[in-house]
Model the fold of this input.
Amino acid sequence: MKILVTGGGGREHAIIAALKKSPKVSEINAAPGNGGIASLAACRDIKATDIPGVVALADEIKPDWVFVAPDDPLVLGAVDALNAAGFKTFGPRKAAAELEGSKVFSKNFMSRHGIPTAAYKTFTDAKKAVDYIKAAGSFPAVIKCDGLALGKGVIIAENLAEAEKAVKDILKGGRFGDSGKEIVVEEYLDGAEVTVLAFTDGKTVIPMPAAADHKRALDGDGGLNTGGMGVIAPAPYYTKEIAAECMEKIFLPTVKGMADEGRAFKGCLYFGLALTGSGVKVIEYNCRFGDPEAQTILPLLETDLTDIMEAVWEERLSALEIRFSPEKAVCVVMASGGYPERYETGFPITGLDCAGELSGVRVFHAGTRKEGGAYVTAGGRVLGVTGVADDLETALSKAYEAVGKIKFEKAFYRKDIGKKALSLIG
Ligand code: AMP
Ligand code: GLY
Done:
């Protein structure tokens, strides 16, 4: 089997590492890939969002499968274009990716189908939005851009002044361009956050082990929101009872609702959930694997990923048993100083071999590039260092031992990944 994977971050490295384990896979190509991916796949310098370029590349290499991994090409319709050109794909079509591509669509969808989520209203007019926030008088208030905004389109306003500024920056100042032509204003959800990724073929939903991401840049959940600084899985507070509630009230109604609306979702569906005092509520949907959730969960996947891709494509997921190792996994992200704001790149990275040789450790590259045989930093999130063990404590110490061996100038990482979870399980 020949596979083309589009994207070039840590998530894609983890997907490619999982595909590489399959005895059926003979060749992997990546567009564009990254420094680490280059050791597993042939990397071609074509952006995942360059859809005509990706289709032309597929025409040239004739893969059996194209795995479209990132959100933006999915939302732009990469899967539709590849299918039209005769290629089998893993990932939702454009109409299904709308669940992530438009927050207005996803909120209205949840409301149509009675799926629990934060109370909300949508606005295109700044004055009406501010009047609504004033009248509600409840803070923090959550303001979200409709479209994709590189993970920065959510503002949690602590008071009216902050809310007013956010609304005006987005609707009047064009801070997020077209993504911010419309906004969602919603209730703040209080409670632990958990991510559940699920394989779905449009009918059946198979959740993976629940994950807990750490989205803020700094220890103690301080600093700015990032794409994710570290993940543990499974999340210890996601009990069997909560899982059953999610399946009944959220996962199945979502998949059925999308199919009923002619937007069957096939691929990996990401449920961002808040465990609130009044039940589990959806914070957001994403139409793809999370990053660094993929680097944490995929190392636990025991079933051949290509078997899952086939079952999803052929809509026979109900007949497939998907197995995960009962072990615990932790991914710690090493980032460039300054991320998620301005940062420098091009610093040499040392210690990768030493770290990668530790048992139960995998080092996934996110923002790296190969220069004359050595790796240098090339992005905000540079590496995802994953430790796997029978218990969370050991998984954490493995990941941090490996992190300690890797050096690059201005590197930073959170030192408290999994700390809260560990305190919960004693
Ligand atoms: P999103 O892009 O919708 O995932 O939002 C990014 C992050 O903002 C989430 O992971 C949450 O931590 C936070 N967030 C979003 N919506 C809410 C909400 N209604 N209440 C509390 N936190 C939220
Ligand atoms: N780690 C959060 C995300 O992938 O959206």
In short: The chain has four domains: 2-93, 125-181, 192-319, 328-425. The chain has a mean pLDDT of 96. The chain has 14 helices and 23 strands.
